[in-house]
Amino acid sequence: MTKNEIVIDVKNITKKFRIYMDKGSQLKERLIFRKRNRYEEREVLKGISFQVKKGEAVGLIGHNGCGKSTTLKLLTKIMYPDSGEIIMKGRISSLIELGAGFHPDMSGRENIYTNASIFGLTKKEIDARLNEIIAFSELEEFIDNPVRTYSSGMYMRLAFSVAINVDADILLIDEILAVGDTNFQTKCFNRLRELKAKGMTIIIVTHDLSTIEKFCDRSVWINNGLIVCEGRSDEVVDAYRNFMNQKRVESEPEPIKENPEPVEEKADNNNNNNNNNDNNNIDYSANRFGLKYVEIKKAEMINSENKDVRIFRTGDALSVKIHYHINKPLEEYVFGFGFYTLEGECLYGNNTQLDRMKINSKKTDGVISVVIEKLPLLAGKYVLNVAVVDSDGTPMDFYRNYCEFEVVSDDRSTGYFSIEHEWRI
Predict the structure, then answer these.
(1) In order of start, what are the domains of the chain with their CATH numbers?
(2) Which residues lie closer than 8 Å to 325 by C-beta, 6 or more apart?
(3) What b-and-e string marks burial along 25-63, b requiring 16 or more CB atoms within 10 Å of the CB?
(4) How far is CA 369 from CA 95, 282, 301, 385, in A?
(5) Helix (H) or strand (E) holding 211
(6) CB atoms within 10 A of CB 201
(7) pLDDT tens across 375-423, in order?
(8) CA 89 vs CA 5, 18, 196, 383, 413: distances in Å
C-alpha cells in the first residue's frame, strides 16, 4: 500500500433526521394525540465529498450542528447515509462517544476484552496486549473495579488505550480528548503522533483549532451540511476563524444600557473649602465615586458604523463617547478612560490632561469622545473604566467597571496587544 493510496472516499453523501415537535412516549399517547407526532425533516448533510490518503491526519471543523459528528458516525457505520457512498479500506477504530461499548457493571479488565473484540481482535490478540493497554491507561489499581465507579476521565483513558492498541488502519476521534487531565492529553497526542508516523490514518473532530493546526495535515470545514473549504489546516482554520469572528460581531445584541446611580446635586458655590471637605467623604473603594459636580450620564463604545456595540475586532476603529451633565461648573475638566482585564489589571489608561488638552469652564452638558483608529487589543473580554476629575485630580465621577466588552481577532499572537511586526532573515 503506497503513501498516496486513498483509504477513505466519501462520495456525495446526504443525511436527514426527523425532528419531532412533541412525540408521545407511549403507544396510547401516539394514538390519542396524533397531532403531537408532528415532525420536520432536517437535512444535516447535503451532499459532501472528500478523500483521505493513507497516513494523513484530517480535521473536521465547524460550528455545533453543522454535520461534523454525523459525518464521523457515518464513517464508523453507526448509521448510514440516505444517499451517496462511503468507501473505507482497512480496520477501523473509533472514539466517538465516551464509554461506548462499555458495560457499567463489568470491570475495566472485562470491558477491555469486550471492547477490543468489537474492533475485531481475538482473545489471544487481546491477551498479548492486555498489560500494555492497562499500563497506558494508568488504571492499574482500578482495573478490576466496575466501570460505573469510574470518572469521565478514567472512562476516556480506558477507551483511548483500547482504541490505539487494536492495530487499526484508521482511527476516528470525536472531541473525546477534551476529557482528562493535561498530562494525559499530552500523552495521548504523543501516541497519536507515533501512530501517524507509522502510517495510521486519523480523522479528528474538535473545536480546539490549535490542535487542528498543530496535528492535522489537512482540514475540512463543514457549514450547514456543505463543505465550505478544504485544504491545508492553517489556511482552513484561518478562514473558519475569520468567518466565526465576523458572525460573532454581526450577531451581537443591543448593548445593555447602564443605569447610573442617582446623583445628589450639590449647591453651587465658589468656596474651595467646601470642595476639600467633600473630598474627605469620598469612598474611593466604591465601584463609582466622586463629588458629582460633573456627572457621567452614559458612555458609549462606537464602532466604524456609528453603532454603540460591545464586540469589536482587533484593528477596528473605536470611539469612547462620554456624555456628561454639569451640576456645578469647574474651572477645568479632565476626562479619562481605561481598558482593564476582568481581574482588574490596567492595560491602558489616558486622560485629557496627560495629552495636554485643557478643557475650560463649561456651564452646559456635553459629550466628549476619544477616537482610536485601530484597536490594538487581542481576542478576549475586557472592562471599560471612565472618569471625570478636576485639574487637581479630585474625582467628580469615577466609574469603575462601567461595562464589559469583547474583542475577537484573527491574530494568533499571545498576550493582550497586537503589535505590527515583520520577521527578517
Answers:
(1) 6-250 (3.40.50.300), 289-408 (2.70.50.60)
(2) 263, 294, 295, 297, 365
(3) eeeeeeeeeeeeeeeeeeebbbbbebebbbbbbbbbbbe
(4) 54, 26, 10, 14
(5) helix 209-215
(6) 25
(7) 999 999 999 999 999 999 999 999 999 999 999 998 889 999 999 999 9
(8) 10, 31, 16, 54, 40
